[in-house]
Amino acid sequence: MLIDWFTVVAQLANFLILVWLLKRFLYLPVLKAIDERDGKIAGELAHAASVQDAAAKERGEWERKSAEFERLRGEMLRQATDEAERKRSELLASAKEEYAGLQQRLQEALRKEEHDRQGESIRRIRSEVLALAGKVLEELADSTLEERIVAVFCHWLQDSGKEQIAVLADTLRDPGVRHVVRSSFELSALLRRQIGETLGALLDAEVHLEYETSQAEISGIELCVNGNCIAWNLGTALAALEKSACGDESRASTAQAS
After folding, report:
1. Among 123-127, 145-149, 222-226, which stretch is predicted with the lowest mean pLDDT?
2. How far is CA 75 from CA 6, 80, 122, 209, 243, in A?
3. CB within 10 Å: which end of the chain, N or C, has fewer?
4. Helix (H/G/I), strand (E/B), else coil: 211
5. Helix, strand or coil for residue 228?
6. How far apart are the C-alpha atoms of 137 and 131, rounded to whole Å?
7. What are phi and psi for residue 223, nearest 5 degrees?
8. Residues β-bridged to residue 180
9. How far is CA 190 from its chain centroid?
10. Average of pLDDT values for 225-239?
11. How high does pLDDT run on average in the chain?
């Protein structure tokens, strides 16, 4: 078989021209397009990765801020709850204290009202009894009662009046000073002597006394020296009785309050 070398060379040249043309107008542009496409895809992928990283960072930041917000919200809620509980406790304690104070004031007012009512009743009854007693004693005053009053006065001078007698001792011993025994009834000579002997025994000296009658006192006697008086009378006795009754009333009130 004979080989047509011209044809072979022509075909080879055509093939080479075809390869060059394909490379020049097809393969290189395709490779360039592929490279450009790859570059574009790589750029887009890089951009997407950067965007994804930024999104991840933003999500992390958002989650951090969300967690911080939840923490702050929980803290503020806890503080608000604690503050509300504290306010409630304070208001409750204040209300209890105010209620206790009101209750105490009410009880004190009731006790005072009861005490005042009882005190007023006791004072009224006591005043009426003492007034009646004084009136009866005045109406019953006779020689026997007068002797008894003088005897009680002398006994009182020897007992309770010793300190007052001691204070006035020098003045009582002075004959230049006027010593007056004033009574609500006329003293007999016997009664005057009894008073004088009692004072003389207390002072260990003779005492010059003047006697006067006065209705200023309720069945009583007083010894006056330079304006200083040592007195005993039924009014004084009744006042002592009233003072004793007041003391009993006060002790009863204290016991009731306790």
Report:
1. 123-127
2. 98, 8, 68, 99, 71
3. N
4. strand
5. strand
6. 10
7. -110, 120
8. 210, 224
9. 68
10. 68
11. 76
Pairwise CA distance, residues 20 & 2, whole Å: 30
Question: In this predicted model, what pLDDT tens digit does every residue of 32-50 receive, in sequence order?
Answer: 888 888 888 888 888 888 8
pLDDT tens figures, 171-204: 777 777 788 888 877 888 888 888 888 888 887 7
Q: Which two tokens stand for residue 21?
A: 């043309």
Q: Going by DSSP bridges, is the β-strand pair 179-183/210-213 parallel, antiparallel, or unpaired?
A: parallel
Cα–Cα distance measured from residue 39 to residue 88, given in angstroms and rounded to the nearest whole number = 71
- In the numeric block, which tokens belong to residue 65? 């801020």
Count how many residues are written for the chain.
258
User: DSSP of 152-191, one letter per residue?
Assistant: HHHHHHHTTTHHHHHHTHHHHH-TTS-EEEEESSPPPHHH
In this predicted structure, the answer to whether residue 255 has a pLDDT above a threshold of 50 is no
Instruction: Give me 89's structure tokens.
Output: 């406790």
Which residue, among 258, 160, 178, has the nearest Cα to 223 in the 3D structure? 178
Q: Read off the pLDDT band of 144 (50, 70, 90).
A: low
- For residue 79, how many C-alpha atoms fall within 13 Å in the half-sphere facing its CB? 6
Amino acid of residue 19: V
d(CA 111, CA 115): 6
Number of H helices, E strands in the chain: 7, 4
Token pair 């009863």 is found at 252
Structure tokens at 103: 């209750």
For residue 220, report the phi and psi dihedrals to the nearest 5 degrees: -150, 180
More confident residue, 105 or 173: 105
By the 8 A CB rule, do 180 and 223 touch? yes
The model's pLDDT over 40-76, given as tens digits with 9 standing for 90+, comes to 888 888 888 888 888 888 888 888 888 888 888 888 8
